[in-house]
């Protein structure tokens, strides 16, 4: 490392650096991108790095490695923030503070362009035709709100394929969790009113809806419609329960995230609490890496920069510590970043910090336990080193149908869910043959093997048969440094009494209920959970697919009309062209297309 050379590079770049908002890169002699940063004024920011003695140790090491710099001018602060995030994801610079994982948040969605909009859970890219409410910090929070919405407003929650294929009400209608629009048990006008009420409630207009429901209940009672009045009373009670669940303060938080940071011995955790429409939408923990010697303000700035380029920012962010780049982020994200030292809002921040502390303590405890198990695993199975990447494999099918293979990945930090993979079985003729399926899965996985994703251990859910099958499948691959272990059920399929098998070694069982045995069971169970879950999604998708889905020009409306007229897909298949034309909206040309499709 050459400190003077690095400082000389910085001083030269100060002379040519633009005084615009944008992004800068610190680059080493070998071309490695050491650091990516953003600034409102790039020149002023680089001047800061030349004040070497004031820099934390981490950045001093970085300056000593700098050989050149590159700049990207952006139109404004928002552009700089997005560009910085894109470059960090591309280069993973070792001196940037990084999120270990970036969880996607679930939302509630209503597509108002649908004839009968459904209330659904949603993750992913948002479109312009729907209304989204959230984010919710976890699935539990979104499920609770959705259950309450169904009880009060009774919007449908089913898939379109189910909705348009129903001929009689489902169980949700029977238990008064849906108003039955699929079979016209509610008028379009009344259903649209309930859609408006849901949107208003999720937007924070709770009191107005409650008053409206109370007025309707009184009218129903006066008209002696006691059944309707009872339903309305239950809706009001449910709304009151939700409003009572939050503190008085929550009602003032229309769009706020509260972020608390806790640091101990170089390890950092951040807790994010989400408040929308006067409700607490849950909280989630994040753990950052490469935070050595970084101050709390610098860490928070880095976290907010990365976090809100992947999530929609609220109107206000309450933080446990202020930082130098606060104004830059406020302009880039169009938010207010606030800190409070007293009052109710300060208590919210304090609570977030306490949760961050508890999350870090749990994480440290779990990591220590995992490392101890990995150390013991290396000894028991005579591994060349403590495993850094374990891949666990399992298959799932239903009597050969919807067959898939699944791979989960475990590291010293826990399960790496971003590395999970599923394999649709393509080349195995007999999908009842688990050995053949496992062979296909491992061959396809090892076709993409490289030094970065090379596992130390491959753990198979199966016995000696699976072990021999996989070794045969991988005989042409370099398995140096990779151990393949099969784990089979013990006597009477008793958890804790499993047998472990390796090529060329005697099979054995671990001590009953030992920590290592429990850890290996956890790995196998996670692979099994992931395989079963993926298989069920694939099967459900196929089951919900109607026989009319493949006919060009038959959309949701025509499909529903056909099914309501004939009663089932089989009856549509059996219908003559003249009978098909009796359905409203089905022309002779369309009827001929449907008939030809089913009579190829």
Description:
The chain is α+β, with helices and mostly antiparallel strands. The chain folds into five domains: 3-96, GIY-YIG endonuclease; 107-247, no CATH class; 250-359, UvrC, RNAse H endonuclease domain (Nucleotidyltransferase, domain 5, 2-Layer Sandwich); 390-542, Nucleotidyltransferase, domain 5; 556-598, Orthogonal Bundle (DNA polymerase, domain 1), CATH 1.10.150. The chain is built from 20 helices and 20 strands. It has helices at residues 3-16, 42-50, 57-65, 77-91, 139-153, 160-163, 171-174, 188-202, 206-222, 226-245, 296-307, 326-333, 344-380, 434-446, 464-473, 515-543, 556-566, 569-574, 577-580, 588-598, and strands at 22-27, 33-39, 68-73, 98-99, 107-111, 119-122, 130-133, 255-264, 267-276, 279-289, 316-319, 336-338, 390-398, 401-411, 414-415, 421-424, 457-461, 483-488, 499-501, 508-509. The strands form four sheets. Strands 13, 14, 15, 16, 17, 18, 19 and 20 form an eight-stranded mixed β-sheet that branches. A six-stranded mixed β-sheet has the order 4-10-9-8-11-12, sandwiched between helices. Strands 2-1-3 form a three-stranded antiparallel β-sheet. A hairpin with a 6-residue loop joins strand 19 and strand 20 (508-509).
Write a concise synopsis of the structure shown.
By secondary structure, this protein is α+β, with helices and mostly antiparallel strands.
């Amino acid at each position: 490392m050459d400190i003077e050379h690095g400082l000389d590079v910085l001083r030269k770049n100060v002379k040519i650096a633009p005084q615009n908002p944008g992004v800068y890169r610190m680059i080493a002699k070998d071309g490695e991108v050491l650091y990516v940063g953003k600034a409102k004024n790039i020149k002023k920011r680089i001047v800061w790095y030349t004040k070497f003695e004031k820099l934390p140790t981490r950045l001093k090491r970085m300056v000593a490695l700098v050989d050149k710099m590159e700049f990207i001018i952006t139109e404004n602060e928002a552009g700089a923030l997005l560009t910085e995030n894109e470059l960090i994801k591309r280069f993973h610079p070792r001196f940037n503070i990084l999120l270990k994982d970036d969880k996607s948040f679930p939302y509630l969605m209503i597509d108002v362009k649908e004839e009968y909009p459904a209330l659904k859970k949603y993750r992913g890219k948002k479109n312009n035709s729907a209304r989204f409410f959230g984010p919710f910090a976890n699935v539990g929070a979104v499920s609770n709100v959705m259950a309450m919405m169904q009880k009060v407003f009774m919007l449908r929650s089913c898939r379109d394929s189910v909705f348009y294929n129903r001929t009689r009400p489902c169980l949700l209608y029977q238990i008064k969790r849906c108003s039955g629009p699929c079979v016209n048990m509610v008028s379009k006008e009344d259903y649209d009113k309930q859609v408006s009420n849901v949107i208003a409630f999720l937007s924070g207009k709770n009191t107005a809806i409650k008053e409206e429901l109370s007025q309707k209940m009184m009218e129903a009672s006066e008209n002696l419609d006691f059944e309707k009045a009872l339903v309305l009373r239950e809706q009001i009670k449910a709304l009151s329960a939700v409003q009572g669940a939050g503190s008085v303060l929550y009602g003032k938080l229309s769009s706020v995230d509260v972020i608390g940071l806790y640091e101990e011995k170089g390890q950092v955790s951040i807790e994010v609490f989400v408040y929308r429409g006067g409700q607490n939408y849950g909280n989630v923990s994040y753990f950052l890496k490469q935070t050595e010697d970084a101050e709390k303000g610098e860490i928070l700035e880095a976290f907010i920069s990365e976090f809100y380029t992947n999530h929609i920012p609220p109107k206000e962010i309450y933080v446990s510590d202020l930082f130098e780049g606060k104004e830059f982020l406020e302009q880039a994200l169009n938010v207010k970043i606030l800190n409070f030292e007293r009052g109710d809002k300060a208590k919210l921040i304090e609570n977030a910090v306490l949760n961050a502390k508890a999350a870090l303590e749990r994480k440290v405890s779990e990591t220590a336990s995992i490392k101890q198990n990995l150390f013991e695993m290396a000894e028991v199975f005579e591994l060349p080193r403590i495993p850094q990447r374990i891949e666990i494999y399992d298959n799932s099918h239903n009597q050969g149908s919807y067959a898939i293979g699944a791979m989960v990945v475990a590291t010293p930090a826990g399960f790496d869910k971003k590395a999970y993979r599923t394999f649709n079985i393509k080349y195995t003729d007999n999908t009842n043959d688990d050995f053949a399926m496992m062979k296909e899965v491992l061959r396809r996985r090892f076709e993409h093997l490289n030094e970065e994703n090379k596992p130390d251990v491959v753990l198979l859910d199966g016995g000696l048969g699976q072990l021999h099958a996989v070794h045969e499948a991988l005989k042409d691959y370099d398995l140096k440094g990779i151990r393949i272990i099969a784990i089979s059920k013990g006597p009477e399929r008793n958890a804790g009494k499993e047998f472990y098998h390796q090529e060329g070694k005697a099979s054995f069982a671990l001590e009953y209920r030992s920590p290592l045995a429990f850890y290996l069971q956890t790995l196998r169970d996670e692979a099994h959970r992931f395989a079963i879950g993926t298989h069920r999604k694939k099967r459900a998708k196929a089951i919900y697919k109607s026989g009319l889905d493949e006919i060009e020009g038959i959309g949701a409306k025509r499909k529903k009309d056909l099914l309501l007229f004939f009663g089932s897909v089989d009856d549509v298949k059996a219908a003559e062209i003249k009978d098909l034309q009796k359905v409203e909206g089905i022309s002779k040309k369309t009827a001929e297309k449907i008939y030809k499709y089913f009579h190829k």
